[in-house]
Specification:
This protein has 136 residues and is an alpha+beta fold. It has helices spanning 14-22, 27-31, 111-130, and strands at residues 2-10, 36-42, 49-54, 59-68, 73-78, 83-93, 96-106. It is globular and about 40 Å long. InterPro entries: Polyketide_cyclase/dehydratase, START-like_dom_sf.
Length: 136
Protein backbone atom coordinates (compact mmCIF):
# COMPACT_ATOMS: atom_id res chain seq x y z
CA UNK A 1 0.00 0.00 0.00
CA UNK A 2 1.34 3.40 -0.96
CA UNK A 3 1.50 5.97 1.82
CA UNK A 4 1.89 9.59 0.73
CA UNK A 5 2.68 12.50 3.06
CA UNK A 6 2.79 16.20 2.20
CA UNK A 7 2.80 19.24 4.45
CA UNK A 8 2.99 22.98 4.11
CA UNK A 9 3.26 26.03 6.35
CA UNK A 10 0.66 28.71 5.61
CA UNK A 11 0.96 32.20 7.04
CA UNK A 12 -2.71 32.39 8.03
CA UNK A 13 -4.96 31.64 11.01
CA UNK A 14 -5.61 27.90 11.55
CA UNK A 15 -9.28 28.46 12.42
CA UNK A 16 -9.81 30.26 9.11
CA UNK A 17 -8.17 27.45 7.16
CA UNK A 18 -10.10 24.79 9.11
CA UNK A 19 -13.41 26.58 8.48
CA UNK A 20 -12.69 26.42 4.74
CA UNK A 21 -11.58 22.77 4.90
CA UNK A 22 -14.64 21.63 6.83
CA UNK A 23 -16.95 23.36 4.33
CA UNK A 24 -17.00 20.06 2.44
CA UNK A 25 -19.15 21.40 -0.39
CA UNK A 26 -17.03 24.52 -1.05
CA UNK A 27 -13.50 23.30 -1.89
CA UNK A 28 -13.65 25.13 -5.23
CA UNK A 29 -14.15 28.59 -3.75
CA UNK A 30 -13.09 28.45 -0.08
CA UNK A 31 -10.12 26.09 0.21
CA UNK A 32 -8.36 25.42 -3.10
CA UNK A 33 -9.81 27.58 -5.91
CA UNK A 34 -8.08 26.88 -9.18
CA UNK A 35 -7.09 23.37 -8.10
CA UNK A 36 -10.71 22.27 -7.63
CA UNK A 37 -13.22 23.84 -10.02
CA UNK A 38 -16.47 22.30 -8.67
CA UNK A 39 -17.72 20.50 -5.58
CA UNK A 40 -21.15 18.85 -5.61
CA UNK A 41 -22.81 16.99 -2.75
CA UNK A 42 -24.41 13.75 -3.94
CA UNK A 43 -27.78 12.58 -2.65
CA UNK A 44 -26.88 9.32 -0.92
CA UNK A 45 -27.84 7.63 2.32
CA UNK A 46 -25.25 7.35 5.07
CA UNK A 47 -22.03 9.32 5.17
CA UNK A 48 -21.89 12.46 3.00
CA UNK A 49 -20.40 12.03 -0.47
CA UNK A 50 -19.03 14.89 -2.53
CA UNK A 51 -18.10 14.88 -6.20
CA UNK A 52 -14.91 16.86 -6.70
CA UNK A 53 -13.94 18.12 -10.15
CA UNK A 54 -10.29 19.12 -10.46
CA UNK A 55 -8.86 21.70 -12.87
CA UNK A 56 -7.17 18.81 -14.69
CA UNK A 57 -10.59 17.38 -15.55
CA UNK A 58 -10.28 14.47 -13.11
CA UNK A 59 -13.39 13.74 -11.06
CA UNK A 60 -13.48 11.90 -7.71
CA UNK A 61 -16.41 10.86 -5.54
CA UNK A 62 -15.26 11.21 -1.92
CA UNK A 63 -17.02 9.77 1.12
CA UNK A 64 -16.52 12.00 4.16
CA UNK A 65 -15.54 9.56 6.92
CA UNK A 66 -14.86 12.00 9.76
CA UNK A 67 -14.85 15.71 10.60
CA UNK A 68 -13.17 16.38 13.95
CA UNK A 69 -13.42 20.06 14.89
CA UNK A 70 -11.43 19.64 18.12
CA UNK A 71 -8.43 18.24 16.23
CA UNK A 72 -9.15 20.16 12.99
CA UNK A 73 -8.93 16.83 11.17
CA UNK A 74 -10.91 15.49 8.22
CA UNK A 75 -10.84 11.95 6.80
CA UNK A 76 -12.26 10.88 3.45
CA UNK A 77 -12.19 7.91 1.07
CA UNK A 78 -12.19 7.94 -2.73
CA UNK A 79 -14.76 5.42 -3.83
CA UNK A 80 -13.18 4.46 -7.18
CA UNK A 81 -9.87 3.32 -5.66
CA UNK A 82 -9.35 -0.21 -4.39
CA UNK A 83 -8.47 1.53 -1.10
CA UNK A 84 -8.08 5.20 -0.23
CA UNK A 85 -7.85 6.92 3.14
CA UNK A 86 -7.11 10.64 2.93
CA UNK A 87 -6.47 12.80 5.99
CA UNK A 88 -6.14 16.58 6.18
CA UNK A 89 -5.05 18.03 9.52
CA UNK A 90 -4.73 21.73 10.32
CA UNK A 91 -2.58 22.68 13.33
CA UNK A 92 -1.42 25.93 14.85
CA UNK A 93 2.21 26.83 14.18
CA UNK A 94 4.28 29.87 15.14
CA UNK A 95 2.93 32.76 13.04
CA UNK A 96 0.54 30.58 11.08
CA UNK A 97 -0.64 27.08 10.34
CA UNK A 98 0.84 23.71 9.47
CA UNK A 99 -1.34 21.68 7.11
CA UNK A 100 -0.60 17.96 6.73
CA UNK A 101 -2.25 15.88 3.99
CA UNK A 102 -1.70 12.13 3.95
CA UNK A 103 -3.14 9.39 1.78
CA UNK A 104 -2.89 5.62 1.99
CA UNK A 105 -3.99 3.98 -1.23
CA UNK A 106 -4.20 0.91 -3.39
CA UNK A 107 -3.17 0.12 -5.99
CA UNK A 108 0.34 1.42 -5.38
CA UNK A 109 0.62 2.42 -9.03
CA UNK A 110 -1.71 5.40 -8.39
CA UNK A 111 0.85 7.07 -6.09
CA UNK A 112 2.72 8.55 -9.05
CA UNK A 113 -0.42 10.40 -10.10
CA UNK A 114 -1.88 11.21 -6.67
CA UNK A 115 1.25 12.54 -4.91
CA UNK A 116 1.88 15.43 -7.35
CA UNK A 117 -1.81 16.36 -7.19
CA UNK A 118 -1.62 16.54 -3.40
CA UNK A 119 1.48 18.77 -3.57
CA UNK A 120 -0.25 21.01 -6.12
CA UNK A 121 -3.36 21.21 -3.93
CA UNK A 122 -1.36 22.34 -0.91
CA UNK A 123 0.50 24.91 -3.02
CA UNK A 124 -2.86 26.31 -4.21
CA UNK A 125 -4.15 26.37 -0.63
CA UNK A 126 -1.06 28.27 0.54
CA UNK A 127 -1.32 30.80 -2.30
CA UNK A 128 -5.05 31.30 -1.67
CA UNK A 129 -4.70 32.05 2.04
CA UNK A 130 -1.45 34.00 1.89
CA UNK A 131 -2.76 36.24 -0.90
CA UNK A 132 -5.60 37.37 1.33
CA UNK A 133 -8.24 35.78 -0.92
CA UNK A 134 -8.92 33.19 1.78
CA UNK A 135 -9.22 35.98 4.35
CA UNK A 136 -6.44 34.38 6.38
Amino acid sequence: MASIHHEVFIGADPDTIWAAARAIDRLHDQLVPGFVVATEMLAVEGAPVRRVTFASGAVADETIVSLDDDRRRMVWAIKAFEHHNGVLQVTEAPEGTQVVWTADLLPDSLAGRVSPMMAQGLACMKAHFESGDGRG
